[in-house]
Design a protein that fits this description.
The structure is a single chain. Helix content is 45%, strand content 12%. The chain is of the alpha/beta class. An eight-stranded parallel β-sheet has the order 6-5-4-3-2-1-8-7. It starts with a helix and ends with a helix. It contains eleven helices and eight strands. It is globular, with a radius of gyration of 17 Å. It has a single domain, classed as Dihydropteroate synthase-like (TIM Barrel), CATH 3.20.20. Bound molecules: 6-hydroxymethylpterin-diphosphate (HH2). The site of 6-hydroxymethylpterin-diphosphate has 21 residues, from strand 1 and strand 5.
Length: 273
Amino acid sequence: MNPDQFLTALAGDDVLLMGVLNVTPDSFSDGGRYYELSDAVDYGLRLISEGADIVDVGGESTRPGAEPVPAEEELRRVLPVVRDLVAAGVAVSIDTRHADVADAAVGAGAVLVNDVSGLRDPSMRAVAARHRVPAVAMHMSVPDPALMQQFTDYGDVVTEVVAFLLVQAELALAEGVPMVVLDPGIGFGKTVPQNVELIRRLDELVALGHPVLIGASRKRFIGVLTDTEQADDRLGGSLAAHLAAVDRGARLVRAHDVLAHRQALTMWRHLAR
Ligand code: HH2
């Protein structure tokens, strides 16, 4: 799917698959594997050949306790990868909390801004508005991965996440962002039961009428619930969590294991009413 096709599809009702490409030394499940430019680009192309509609390029791990990465270093990691993938005709999304990084990546041809801090920063919204690209607003309890797991004290987690994302979407749209994708932020300042509840009741987020993204791939709550220590071994749990979300109306799935997800989504499409 080329960038134009991706944007058209985002406005339709197909379920889209976002492959994860972490150009980091320390991501929780694949840190260090695609840190070199050529490895990263090859892997991005592989994700597309395995069935991804878009490749999400990130240069900063947001796992609890990860070291923050200065914007210059993040740019050094991601920009050449974005450029090369765009040149190869790949639809690229930029996974960043820094408006400068988003600006440069979109300037280089990325078609989606993926902001795990929920478009809280007005300059991030301004970047998406100025370039006329859609943006993902993800919920994180506090916009700091180092602290987020200390803030899991919600009244009703679903109600609070939905309320936060509604405000962020309305703000971004009013400021000229052409489309906002909402993401409950699985694992970002949530306990295991809260993550489960967010997926069980994802229809409440879907009901807001914006496309919804789900990113449960290999996350710790799956490890806890299935007693699976190694993140790479959590594919079965990731597929189950994602299909439950798709059944409740999720339109984008962010996943590490693209081949298996493509197969699962194809079967789901055949089986769903
Ligand atoms: N999860 C991660 C990173 N970016 N973006 C969105 N929209 N939704 C998510 O759930 C999400 C995200 C964390 O996963 P990963 O990129 O594999 O790990 P790390 O942050 O350690 O690089």
